[in-house]
Amino acid sequence: MRKTRKSWLLMVSxxxxxxxxxxxxxGGKTADPAPATPPAANGDSGEKKDPPAEGSDEGKWVxxxxxxxxxxxxxxxxxxxxxxESVPLGKYLSEEKQVKIDVIAANGAHKQKLSAMIASxxxxxxxWTDRDDPMILSLQKEGKLVAFDPWLDKYPNLKTWMGDLDLxxxxxxxxxxxxxxxxxxxxxxxxxxxxKKIYDELGQPPLETTDDLYNYLKMVKDKYGDSIxxxxxxxxxxxxxxxxxxxAFGEQLSYSNLKANLLAVPKDGKLTPLLTDxxxxxxxxYIAKLYREKLxxxxxxxxxxxxxxxxxxTGRVAVFAGSSPTDIASKAQxxxxxxxxxxxxxxxxxxxxxxxxxxxxxxxTYTSFGxxxxxxxxxxxDPEAIFAFLDWMTGPEGMNVQFFGxxxxxxxGFDENGQPNFTENYDREEVTKISSExxxxxxxxxxxxxxxxxxxYMSTLPPEEQQWEVxxxxxxxxxxxxxxxxxxxxxxxxxxxxxxxxxxxxxxFLEIYANSVMAKSDEEVDQxxxxxxxxxxxxxxxxxxxxxxxxxxxxxxxxxx
Amino acid sequence: MPQATTEQQPSPxxxxxxxxxxxxxxxxxxxxxxxxxxxxxxxxxxxxxxxPMYGVITGFMDYSIFTGSNIFDNPWVGFKHFEAFFNAxxxxxxxRNTIVISLLKFFIGFPAPIxxxxxxxxxxxxxxxxxxxxxxxxxxxLSWVIVAGFVIAMLSTENGxxxxxxxxxxxxxxxxxFLSLKQYFWTILISANVWKEIGFNSIVYLAAIASIDPALxxxxxxxxxxxxxxxxxxxxxxxxxxxxxxxxxxxxRLLDAGFEDIxxxxxxxxxxxxADVVDTYVYRVGLGANRYxxxxxxxxxxxxxxxxxxxIANYAxxxxxxxxx
Lengths: 561, 325
Hints:
The complex is a heterodimer. Chain A has helices at residues 2-31, 33-36, 88-96, 110-119, 134-141, 157-162, 196-201, 210-224, 240-246, 278-292, 305-313, 326-339, 383-394, 396-404, 428-438, 447-458, 468-477, 497-517, 522-539, 541-560, and strands spanning 68-74, 99-104, 126-130, 178-179, 191-195, 229-232, 264-267, 270-273, 317-322, 345-348, 364-366, 372-376, 411-414, 420-422, 481-483. By secondary structure, chain A is an alpha/beta fold. In chain A, α10 (278-292) crosses α19 and α18 (497-517) crosses α20 (541-560). The longest helix of chain A is centred in the N-terminal third of the chain and has 30 residues, at 2-31. In chain B, 64% of the residues lie in helices and 0% in strands. Chain B is built from 15 helices and no strands. In chain B, α6 (126-137) packs across α9, α9 (182-210) packs across α11 and α14 (278-288) runs antiparallel to α15 (292-318). Chain A: Residues 1-23 form the signal peptide. Chain A: InterPro entries: Bact_solute-bd_prot1 (IPR050490), SBP (IPR006059). Chain A: Keywords: Cell membrane, Lipoprotein, Membrane, Palmitate, Signal.
């Protein structure tokens, strides 16, 4: 026994000695190259031969003149860039214009992947993610991002099409992000999609007010029972259809009030708590009533996106609402009308509470800078070339190539408004294919340019031949989206007090939100929300509101300028 | 390390001859050819289990990811993150859920494969036994993503097969929203776990049963022992050493209440009060919210308790002569 213990002691101490030794080695190994090599040199694209042409001032980067190769990484859950050469845009650019992009894939673990790349100081040249992703804020703070300011005039497309760039600036006053789908006009597709077949079978009752909706859903439930979901809100933890229902209870009511990065109601220049807001409560009581009477999908909070898709694609929903219901519904439209030309879906004007002005309903929100943004890191060997390339992509030529293919086939030259001249060889099916295949690589979309260009062609077609979603964008969804640009960038810096509060407030809010939807009575809704508000306050919700309010006011100041 | 030496009589799993009076080094040298085979495993364990362990000291620092592996550039903060965890509003329910789910998994998930093995052992029809064995161990090879997908689809209220079955036999009038009601969650979680792992875990017990000397059963038969008696008096005692070793290992993992299974099955925020455990919390807060030091501190706290539990379990098991060390 004693012998055994002794040998164990020996073994354990040996392991510790070895561990220390190896740990020392490991530390030294990684610490060594960091100071020796500047950040630019540790990119893995050793094939690049040309030195950066920054020295000469005339060295303006022009597409196709010399090779450009860089690494790109999409920081999104479950979304990686497809291989560059696998999409028409990448095939054309790599074959004809010497632009090659190497994809860095997260393979489903994006948070781990980016953390690992930062910790090992092996950053991709370009990171494409949400505009205000906390990791991007940290990267900027640590000086790992490249500011675009010196090149904004040299390559002017972003400045031309985006207009005011002030709200894009980070705290140090510089611009580090290249926005995607920025626009000065409303866009977005939040709203309600209605199953046409069921609507016809029920005698096309009015569907305008919340009462109409309730009655209609009851009719659906009575007639079809369990076989049809009366109201499908998509994944309710992301608000989606339930958030759209919330907007029915006020004029110009913002869907974004429910989003994690706001969670407040702006009122008279102040941010007030959401859970005590009378309009929110009214909406929650209405939603809870629908849920209780099984008019809303009972799986709303537990289902996966695939389950939602399956229901919509097979026409098993009567009303489908969400922050972008057309994504699924436009595909379902094609499938369902194959068998039955009168089937499919149509969009309705957003529902409103009786007494409100229906023309002031806003089912969704948009900001002038879209959703995602491209960021260039200090790992890039020639950041100017990457910026210039992105600027080419967002300009008229780049946008046209992405949507209509290379110049010459479907389009040729520009008209007096700068829009493409479509040729006689214009092939509609090919164009649809090109633009949908390119869509994962549309990094820096330019809505203000491409929407009129698409519409230029579409408007020459009779209405029934127009694309389903494009038709409703023009007539329903675009006029009913609210501009919430003033509320962007209210996030606190990572690991600050407010950031930690925001995370726990968001988590708890979701729990309270779901509980209030499943409440048994109006009184219970009130009770859950009262108690919930108290719990949020205990977590420091008020401090968060004050912080966000100050940032919001700063945004308003910037906008006034 | 493979020498499990005890002063009692050798158990089936420690059959090495007792060598007490030579030094460890001499003994190792003598069987160098055998030790050579162990070496790759030792190196592997060392590199992937021991070496990364020095990172736990970041639990006592404010770790910034930008310092990379130069972890000593970070400021020391002592027990700040541990205190923050103990004072977190979620602390109580996380600990409670971790303990409850772990104990449920232990008391149901641990004996289940033993019972299955005992039952399979009594099946005389070879073909039937093989089929059952194959069917029960297959789910082990499915990832939790797939299993959770099955479970969610089966339990959904719209077109969920469980609800349809219950409705068609008249057990319920309205579909039950299984995945949104707190009272069902633990049952669902444990059942899914048992379903997934029961067959695979029973293999080792079946092997242990197979090694029992048939003469024992024959003798019992002659003495007139019934089938049930034979199970209690021969099978169970014979596989006891294996059961105890696996029980010690299970106790070591006791606080691993689960991670993927809970993360995937409890996507509904309503379930968080019954589903949030240490590991899911570490993942959400540590990785999701980039509070690395905080996550590491909680992970370390959990590991310390696990080591403590393992030591106690081993101490208790040593009395039966089947301890790990």
